[in-house]
Amino acid sequence: MMTFGYRIRFYLLAVLLLVGISVILFRLFVVQIDRYEEYAAKVPGTSEVKVRIPGVRGLIRDRKGKVLVENVARYEMQFNLKEVLDNFNLLLKEENSEIRKLNKTRSDKIALKELPVTFFEYVDGSGIKRKRKENDMVTIVSESVLPYLARLGLYKEFHSGDLQRHWRTHGGLVAYTYRDDLTFEEYALAAEHSLDIPGVSVMARPMRKYIYGALASHILGFVRQPDIKKVPAEERRQWNYYVPDDFGGDGIEETMNSSLRGRPGQRVMLRDEKGRIVDSKDKFGKVLGEISYDEPKPGSDVWLTIDVRYQYIVENALRKVGRGAAVVVSPRTYQRGNDGDQDTVYAGDILAMASVPSYDPNKFIPSISEENWNAYLKNDNDPLINRALKDHAPGSTFKIPVALAGVLNGMENKFYECAGGARYGPKVFMKCWALSKGYKHGSISARGAIKTSCNGFFYRYGNASGIDNILRVASSMGLGKRSGIPLNNEDSGFIPNPNWKRSQGLGKWGDADTALVSIGQGATEATPLQMAMVASTTANGGEYYQPRLIHKTVDFSGEKLSPPKLMNSLTEIGIPKEKIEIFKSGMWDVVNEIKGTAKRARSEVVELSGKTGTAQTGRKRPEGGNETNAWFISFAPYDKPKLAVCVMVENAKSGGGVCAPIAKRIIDEITLLEDYNKDQALSAVEESKGNFDFVELVSFDDDPTDGIVSDSDGDDGTSVAATPAPDPNNSSRKLLLMPTVKKAPDTRGSVKSKTVKKRIGILERRRRGR
Q1: How many structural domains are present in the chain?
Q2: Is 193 inside any structural domain?
């Protein structure tokens, strides 16, 4: 029989159990039902991770839609260094726990492991050098990550300084790209094993491919890896992991970056209790840890005005020389092609633009090696410079704007005597190039002086026209200012003037100064693009259109056309078309008359016109004599012209012997392509290395004009002593390219085989002990 006291104790125990069970049930209700979402979010190791997915860059196409730049898959391995550090701390804690247990039974105590640290120097705001302590991520990665990769055959040496700087700059926000060169097999291997290492992931992302190699490299440019410092902090804070976009490093890739850049997407992933992102897949291929996925959107496709077939023709013709440039533009708007494939070519369209030497933009993707980058920088031929946009003294090609300026003073039909040159004061005699050949041009008109490139005429003609009229016409034809095309590092060119001379402390402007400008020498400078537009403006009767390189942009919402724009008309400043015809005829004489300076440009395919030029550079040739640059501007056909071309070659003897055959080749090949349906095969082009060889003559094996004998190919640039320009506008000559350079592995970025085996053993024992 149960005693009273025993019953009391039994009842109290029952009450306590009921109360305890009630409390537990109530807490279960609160945790699992009433406040489930709140507590679920607090469960250690389970959290959502927002990952930014970069947008896909749009394609770059030629004017007919031919793809020039595309996206291909690139396989990367990345380290999120914050996760790697957290995992290392966890391992360190476990190892020190084991050490403490061992030390309880040992007389010789084992020292506890410490988190590796390092120091780096920096300069504070007052300019004082100081040292700061930070986590030694190189050691941490080498001990906790690289051994596993080595076991899988995925390890590769790296530059330790880059990794440490990345940690210092970006922390865990931006993943460190350990490898950007995984093969598909390596990518599949890594994905299959899931690597089981916190902080390590593999991903496929778009990579730029320049389909035709070095073709049009100075137009297209390249992309570089992102600079997170340029991303606003507010934008970065939207994601746990910020995977930034590549951005343009030069060319159209740079200037049209905002159009090409796609809209980013977002992936929300589950992170497990060990700090790892769950990215395994079920048998249907679904990512188990993916909570949501917002697909990134592609950027706009950019359609250029260039025709890739023309570009191919121009670059192959230009490779006859070591250093130079060529530009092809359209003087007027016209339709080309057949009924099923028509294309409107607009006035001012840049149909091709090439520069030699060149470079291969594929070498910059995803990053350029130190070896290749240094090779480019040390190449004295400057392959990264776009010579089509760099200014030089244009020589006698500048006589076309000067000739047109004379119309403003009624000089177009006036004759002047070429007495072998012109004297300015007792000490200055400027000679005509013909005097060096032993003769004089005699009494000659503007048309005749263009044909023979007579300096003696243009000294006097320029003085009679006046520097103000020359400046007015030159400006109306686009000289002395940047064209406005979307390419950086374009020079503006320069036309000397009285105000400039005075500001430089060079004295008062005189007739000799105007005479020097009239033959395109001294401080006079222009770019090949500008001189192509001079040819275009003359060919079409005096209309200067803004050069156009972007045809249109196309995205999911439609297309946006960049319309042609008439900037100036010579008729509006007092130069009627019938007067322009006089000088246009003179350009026809240059090629087609016996005494013309560009007889080697005479074509059996199309009626071609042009103007030669040669100008001193102020530099000496290694083999002796002054270095000269040669020019030839041209257009074709004479009536209803479709092409205007400028060719400039550095260190060449004459425009008639060097540049004219190249321009003829370009115009003939394009004409055969369009008017005679000749096919043009395309293939990837290797970069042109360039050289400093003196170019005396250019010929093509199948060119019948190679047999033409001439006593002169025009002005050889020795009429006047070289007068180097003070170069007031050429700050852009400094190369401002900033590619992503991949540094060669250093000593700390290499894990020795013994270290790998040792660390694998330690890590495996830790894993089994968990």
Answers
A1: 4
A2: yes
Residues 234 and 268 in one domain: yes
Q: Residues 444, 460: contact at Cβ < 8 Å?
A: no
Determine how β-strand 368-369 pairs with β-strand 741-742. Answer: parallel
Q: Which letter, b or e, does each residue of 669-704 get, where b requires 16 or more Cβ atoms within 10 Å of its Cβ?
A: bbbbbbeeeeeeeeeebebbebeeebbeebeeeebe
Is 148 domain-assigned?
Answer: yes
Q: Assess whether 30 and 58 both reside in one domain.
A: no
| Consecutive H or E run containing 169 | helix 160-170
* Spacing of C-alpha 350 from chain mean position: 18
Which of 316, 308, 305 shows the shortest CA–CA distance to 211?
Answer: 308
Q: Which residue has the tokens 């012997």?
A: 657
- Residue 60 and residue 302 in contact, taking contact as beta carbons nearer than 8 Å: yes
Sign (positive/negative) of CA torsion 715, 688, 487, 69?
Answer: positive
CATH number of residue 215's parent domain: 3.90.1310.10
The per-residue pLDDT for range 578-627, each reduced to its tens digit, is 999 999 999 999 999 998 999 999 999 999 999 999 998 878 777 767 78
- Cα separations (Å) of 43 from 1, 31, 36, 40, 196? 51, 11, 11, 5, 21
Residues in the chain: 770
Radius of gyration of the chain (CA): 36
Any idea which residue has 């992503």 for tokens? 740
pLDDT bin (cut points 50, 70, 90) of residue 275 is low
CA of residue 62 relative to chain centroid, distance? 16
If asked whether residues 520 and 395 sit together in one domain, one would say yes
Q: What is the pLDDT of residue 575?
A: 97
Q: pTM to 2 decimals? A: 0.85
- Helix ranges (DSSP H) in 528-571: 528-539
Report which of 665, 598, 660, 609 is spatially closest to residue 635, judged by C-alpha positions.
609
Report the pLDDT value the prediction gives residue 769, as an integer from 0 to 100: 53
My answer on whether 496 and 549 are in the same domain is yes
The per-residue b/e assignment along 389-409, b for 16 or more CB within 10 angstroms, e otherwise, is bbbbbbbbbbbbbbbbbbbbe
- Does residue 164 sit within a domain? no
d(CA 248, CA 738): 10
d(CA 62, CA 740): 27
Asked whether 278 and 272 are in contact (CB, 8 A), the reply is yes
Claim to verify: residue 645 and residue 758 sit in the same structural domain: no
Alpha helices in 104-183 (DSSP H): 137-144, 146-151, 160-170
Give me the domain span that covers residue 107. 81-158+740-770
User: Model confidence over 127-142: pLDDT tens digits?
Assistant: 788 888 889 999 999 8
